[in-house]
Amino acid sequence: MAKATRKTTKKTEAAPEASARVAEAPVLRKKDFVERVAKISGAKKAVARDVAQAALQVLSEALEKGETIAVPPLGKMRVTRTAVNNGASVLHIKLKRGSADASGAAAQKDEKSAADPLAEGAE
Questions:
Q1: Closest CA to 81 of 70, 96, 92
Q2: Which of 79, 57, 56 is nearest to 68 (CA)?
Q3: Region Disordered: what ranges (predicted)?
């Protein structure tokens, strides 16, 4: 029985540390998101705001419908369960991300396939 007690104690001690890390995570607000998109894309903020709003709306609607979203480099996202909390819809989402090496390999594969078409122009 001593072993079971030790295992239980270890799990109890680890849980508060994990939840503390999540609680301290910074929040990326929509305004900051738009600013980053504008900076990376070189677009004006007004254009970046409209495009970011449209992209977020498409993602939101797809998740509400229960669709799986596969958007590299973000990853593959799917709703695992839904709930209603105080009138708000709560979606539990699983996000599977590949390693940095896998993303690079996929990009190289896409470049190679784009350079080597399956059929010739005359076919």
A1: 92
A2: 79
A3: 1-22, 98-123
State both tokens at 7. 């295992």
Report the C-alpha gap between 32 and 26 in whole angstroms: 12
Residues 1-31 have pLDDT tens digits of 444 444 444 444 545 555 555 668 899 999 9
Amino acid identity, position 36: R
Reported confidence tier of residue 104, pLDDT bands at 50, 70, 90? low
Distances in Å between the Cα of 107 and the Cα atoms of 27, 68, 70 are 29, 21, 14
* Residues 120, 28: Cα–Cα separation, whole Å: 47
Distances, alpha carbon 84 to alpha carbons 49, 89, 90, in Å: 29, 5, 6
**71-86 per-position pLDDT tens digit:** 998 999 999 998 998 9
Question: How does pLDDT run across 92-101, given as a tens digit for each residue?
Answer: 999 999 875 5
Residue 41, token pair as written in the block: 């894309």
The count of residues in the chain is 123
